[in-house]
Amino acid sequence: MFFSLSSAFVFLCLVNISSQSTDDGIPPELTVNLATVQLAEREDARVRLGAGPVVTCVDADGDAVRAYVSSVQPTSGCGMQCLQLEPVTGNPSDFKLMFKPTNGFATTPSYTLTIGCTDDAETPVEKTMGVVIVSNTPPTFNPNSPPY
């Protein structure tokens, strides 16, 4: 009688993956440098709103931060499609507000933006700011008005 022994290899791999948070539990600080910016209705190209950084987002722990537009009210008009935050070159804590017009941007006279700031470890901090669309209505000619 022949017995056949088959051997089996069992490969057991134990992997312990752990991560250690370097965040000290301090949420970032958000500064909105402009409460309201004005935008001329005639703008039809991508433009920066306000001079200097509009938003500054700093984390006391030294963690990397990002700022973003959380919401735009009213939702009619161009809203989130038109208004975006971008980092300022050379300073990762400063952000500029960019406007990119789309169809219908001039139909809404003002927007309220909720700006968020996060280090992706703590709860985001949020503040609001306004954007006002300044009407650029062309002059009209009235042939019945008296000459001056």
Automatic annotation (TrEMBL):
Keywords: Signal. The keyword Signal applies. It comes from the Eukaryota. Residues 1-19 form the signal peptide. This is Cadherin domain-containing protein. It comes from Elysia chlorotica.
